[in-house]
Amino acid sequence: MILKGKSAIVTGSTSGIGLGIARRMAAAGADVMLNGSRQPAEAEKLLNEIKAETGARLAYCSADMTKEADRGRLVDETVRAFGKVDVLINNAGIQYVSKVAEFPLDKWNEVLEVNLSSIFDLTRRVLPGMKDRKWGRIINIASVHGLIGSTKKSAYTAAKHGLIGFSKVVALEYCEHGITCNSICPGWVRTPLVEKQIEAIAKEKNIPYEEAVVDLLSEKQPSKQFVTTEQLGGLAVFLASDDAAQLTGVAIPVDGGWTAR
């Protein structure tokens, strides 16, 4: 219960990486505001499941990360529910795949809005309170694509590189106020987004699904194993703890050796 008494926002936390992080944060004692696009009944069921598992206080906000007013509502509702925001975990993200010359401008703008601009907006909203309390943790879920490039992912790669740079600036500006800011850079994680990529490989190469899994992992992730959402959640809990008080401005690859090459 190393986060007992702390409150956290985890964006994009009704599935995949965000849900794994939210569960681990709750298990560590934090009050957690979940965020996503679930219907009210589905969201209530998910909250009850995590409450039963952890005994934590939880709430849910359906704020849309493309809308400034919704981002403000997310912060306001968290403060109303828990009194403060101690930990901000920016996880929500979207992807669009295309070569640069054919990349639609509206898709470029949407990817940058969700994967970078919304994070700037949420961060600037929570920093004053963290500064007043002399304690805060901002954890940005970037990607190995924040450290390297990949074809057909220009907007995603640009946003994630930008996110790592932004994290360093926040770390430098607020390190004297008990606030840290770090980036987690996952490799392949078995999320719904990655499942679609596996299915696309299987269809394109006319191979079985499990063979497509091996094909995906073998190309870039030397461990040939997926990173799990539980592992990413455990790292997020550590970064939010007092043990990580002097760890700031870093981008941590969790990628089975992908970026070690």
Can you lay out the helices and strands and say which pair or pack?
Elements: E1 7-10, H1 16-27, E2 31-35, H2 40-54, E3 58-61, H3 68-82, E4 87-90, H4 105-133, E5 136-141, H5 154-174, E6 179-186, H6 192-205, H7 209-220, H8 229-240, E7 251-254
Parallel strand pairs: 1-2, 1-4, 2-3, 4-5, 5-6, 6-7
What tags apply to this protein structure?
single chain; 261 residues; alpha/beta; Rossmann fold; seven-stranded parallel beta sheet; 8 helices; globular
Report a brief summary of the structure.
The chain is an alpha/beta fold and 261 residues long.
Strand order of the largest sheet: 3-2-1-4-5-6-7
Overall mean confidence score, pLDDT:
96
**Rg over CA atoms:** 18 Å
Largest sheet, in brief, is: 7 strands, parallel
Helical region count? 8
User: Which percent range describes the beta-strand content?
Assistant: 5-15%
Q: Might you state the CATH topology name of the largest domain?
A: Rossmann fold
Uncertain spans: none
